[in-house]
Amino acid sequence: MVAQIFGAAFGLLAVILGAFGAHALKKKFTVDQQQSFETGVRYQMYHAIVLIGIGELYKDVALFQTISILFIVGVILFSFSIYGLCLSSAFGRKLRFLGPITPLGGLFLVIGWALLLYQVLSK
């Protein structure tokens, strides 16, 4: 259930942030910032869909709870640090401390996908 709640919330926010980035921030962002912001939205949406699927199909499998947590934390660290970097840079005060957080979030996502692959292959 937690995976589905986060999946739905991440999906909702991805649509809102995607529209916000494409329209309201279009004149404020550089091309690179726009592309980075879109990457954050895209990865967030991918994982929203996966979380909903995992939450529905594997409610009682402990490994899938771990995978869900890795995806949730990974999205928060990866996508939201990208949003913070892009927004802070666009408004003249780049929050550089967020830079190292992005790859850490990516690592959580990679570990989640590796565990998912392991689970599928072990059946």
TrEMBL record:
Subcellular location: Membrane
Protein name, per record: DUF423 domain-containing protein
Family membership noted in the UniProt record: Belongs to the UPF0382 family.
Keywords: Membrane, Transmembrane, Transmembrane helix
Any one Gene Ontology cellular component term annotated for this protein: plasma membrane
Bilayer disposition of the protein: Multi-pass membrane protein
The keyword Ribonucleoprotein appears for this protein: no
Transmembrane segments: 70-91, 97-118
A Pfam family recorded for this sequence: DUF423
InterPro entries for this protein: DUF423
Coiled-coil parts of chain: none
